Amino acid sequence: MQLRNRAAYGFLAPYLMIFATFWIWPIISSFLMSFQNTRVNPWVFSLGANWGRLFNDPAFYNALKNTMIILIVQVPVMITLATVMAVLLNSPLLKARGLFRFAFFAPVVVGEVAYAAVFRLMFNLDFGIINKLLNSVGIPSISWFAEAPAAMALLIIAVTWRWAGYNAIIILAGLQSIPGDVYEAATLDRVSKARQFIYITLPLLKPIILFCVILSIIGSMQLFTEPMLITNRGGPGGGTETLGLFLYRQGFTSLNFGYASAIAYTMAALAIVISLLNLWVGRDQK
Amino acid sequence: MAELSLKNVVKRFGSYEIIRNASLDVADGEFVVFVGPSGCGKSTLLRMIAGLEHITDGEIHIGDTLVNDVEPADRGIAMVFQSYALYPHMTVEQNLAFGLRMTGNPKADTDRRVQRVADILQIKELMQRRPKQLSGGQRQRVAIGRAIVREPRVFLFDEPLSNLDAELRVQMRVEISRLHKELGTTMIYVTHDQTEAMTLADKIVVLRGGNIEQIGAPLDLYDNPANQFVAGFVGSPKMNFMSAEVTATDSDNVTLTLLNQGNVRLSLPLKNPPPAIGDAVTLGVRPEHFAKAGEGVADLTIAVDVAEHLGNTSYIYANVAGGEQLIIEREESRNEIKTDTLTVAIKSSHALLFDKTGNRLR
């Protein structure tokens, strides 16, 4: 090995060691663990203990269903909202643009626990502002934490509030990379503003939107903080338990590491499959 | 096809005036070139005609219609942008047809027009390609095609060749000229390149600092520039300017001393009211308007700095006092050109005279 290569590896070594210990090894170890019954001592190889159970476990299917509902409802709503926000932020008519940009991005930098606490207060059955507002327009109070559909809606609202602005900023960067004279050319081509948006803006934003969708899919698959803190550990009665929370419960409450590993691999596989599906659907058709 | 006229058009951003009282008449089918240095307002003026910029004051007429408040799409104009502004996600064919399809033009007519444009511009084999798969020249052709397909009354070109290399620029220049002959449509073309202006235009509009300095046919501008700016801007290589002082005048002549050429004195016929004795003036002589020694009103002996031999002609560059540079064109055999000093004569027939504010005296 040449001296300069050796020096390079020398400098890289501390990072590589940490990477191998805390990334590579856990990935391999958890894969092996997913084939072991970790409820007995010593652990023994067993395909049925984890993978077999996974396919027959109603709690897993419940968590999968909840995650998919969030994915299917929340991601499209949030990305649509983010696109609208980005277009508004990009409008030359908007005053105090910097302030709005900050305001939309701010939820991401708010501490998770603080934001969860505020949402719990806002959606409180008896004195939360949301029910007060609903009452003021004649809608009776909703028991946000006691009814599964309402709790799910709350979760979706919370996640959307937290991440829409973040996606809007990414989409805004995409919007700003579209040259203005393309729109001027379209204006001279007698294309209305609405059609310019549909036929020029959206197709040119497609790669950016796809990127945001995939980031959001991965985020939704891992959703943990909100069901843990806002809807009180996936309540009511597992009504908002997501795969992330289910994994946590199996691994760190029941200490069944083998099963938790199998769940983790399932989540990763699902995220990859859904993302690939998205890329395939959104591919450039020649 | 349509004529176009601007009447006292003004563009102001806050208190800053970009265009001052621009008035211009363009005849039906005329090729007009706006030329001037960067920031002179030529592109702004074009964009105001297109409707992409509002005008602060004045009137713009296209045909018989006052278009001040008419939307760009309804002005009957098409524009070719400097950056081409092609729709990057569409094929060439889609780029050409997009506007027509969006406005619900019948498919058969759209197809016919797109085919015709593809024939005119010889881009048939490119129809299924995307803009990023095209060279600069091909993109420019498509951009021009997109303008033609709309069959506009007026074509607007905003520095369409400035992103192309020198060879392609010449080729496209010829094509645009041919296109104008073929279509016979009114065209307005913005450039900072005076060669493009000279070769393409029926009429040139020279702008500086938001003012129209002169409007005229290319050779009129070349032979009879209204002021020192136009004289210097039109023509390549540039006209030589020599600082001088008026030393004597009479009813028909003015006598000057060239300050940076060893106080050479010369006398020029002058019909206009003469400047006062002692006034600073500038003598303007184009590089090709120097004669052989003894054949003009005064001889200049210059130290040759660089000689450029282009084959058919040669340019002699000489640095003289006061930071002035003289460029002299010599068509005689390159072997006869002395490489150290050269004596040439100023011909009175082609010598121009400007006062110290740049206004032309003769």
TrEMBL record, chain A:
Membrane-spanning residues: 12-35, 68-90, 102-122, 142-161, 197-218, 257-281
One Gene Ontology term from the biological process aspect of the record: transmembrane transport
Subcellular location per the Swiss-Prot or TrEMBL entry: Cell membrane
Gene3D superfamilies membership: MetI-like (1.10.3720.10)
Gene Ontology CC entries for this record: plasma membrane
Membrane topology annotation: Multi-pass membrane protein
Domain ABC transmembrane type-1: residue ranges: 64-278
Alphabetical UniProt keywords: Cell membrane, Membrane, Transmembrane, Transmembrane helix, Transport
Similarity-based family: Belongs to the binding-protein-dependent transport system permease family.
Protein name (Swiss-Prot/TrEMBL): Lactose/L-arabinose transport system permease protein
Organism: Phyllobacterium myrsinacearum
TrEMBL record, chain B:
MF terms (GO), sorted A to Z: ABC-type maltose transporter activity; ATP binding; ATP hydrolysis activity
Transmembrane segments: none
The keyword Amino-acid biosynthesis belongs to this UniProt entry's keyword annotation: no
Protein localization: Cell inner membrane
Keywords, sorted A to Z: ATP-binding, Cell inner membrane, Cell membrane, Membrane, Nucleotide-binding, Transport
Domain ABC transporter: 4-234
Topological category with respect to the lipid bilayer: Peripheral membrane protein
GO cellular component: ATP-binding cassette (ABC) transporter complex, substrate-binding subunit-containing; maltose transport complex
Highest taxon, organism lineage: Bacteria
Keyword check for Acyltransferase: no
Family: Belongs to the ABC transporter superfamily.
Name of the protein described by the UniProt record: Lactose/L-arabinose transport system ATP-binding protein
